[in-house]
Write a structure and sequence with these properties.
Helix content is 16%, strand content 34%. By secondary structure, it is an alpha+beta fold.
Length: 119
C-alpha cells in the first residue's frame, strides 16, 4: 500500500465501493464492487487476501481467497471460519455475517487524488 503524500490520500473503502455479504456454514462471502471502473486497479492492489485476513483476524479467519471480477470492477472474497460456527452454531446476533461487509468497508485505501476528481 503506498504511503499518503501530496498526490495520494487515505479514504475508506466505502467511499470507493459497495459490498454485500452472504454465508454458507462457517464461511463468509463478501462481494465488493467499485463505484467507478477507474478505482478497480487500486482496490485490486490494496484489498488483498493477506490484508483482509488481518482485518478479520479477531474473528478467527483461517483463510481468505479472492476471486477478481474485472469485467464487473469487483471481487469476491471468501473467508473461512469467521462466523463463529455459522447461523446454526453461533451465539452472536449476526450468525449470517451480514454486518461484516460494513466492517470490510471501513478498510483504509490510499488513492491517487486525480482518480477522485470525477467523484
Amino acid at each position: 500500500m503506498p504511503e499518503p503524500d501530496d498526490q495520494h490520500v487515505i479514504v475508506r473503502l466505502h467511499e470507493l465501493a459497495h459490498a454485500r455479504a452472504g454465508d454458507k456454514g462457517n464461511r463468509l462471502n463478501l462481494a465488493v464492487f467499485a463505484y467507478r471502473d477507474a478505482w478497480y486497479d487500486t482496490l485490486i492492489e490494496q484489498v488483498t487476501e493477506q490484508r483482509v485476513a488481518a482485518w478479520f483476524a479477531h474473528r478467527g479467519a483461517t483463510a481468505v481467497r479472492r476471486y477478481p471480477l474485472p469485467r464487473l470492477a469487483g471481487m469476491n472474497l471468501v473467508l473461512d471460519e469467521v462466523l463463529q460456527g455459522g447461523v446454526n452454531g453461533a451465539l452472536n446476533l449476526d450468525g449470517h455475517g451480514k454486518t461484516l461487509s460494513f466492517r470490510l468497508l471501513e478498510l483504509d485505501i490510499v488513492i491517487d487524488r486525480t482518480l477522485l476528481d470525477d467523484r
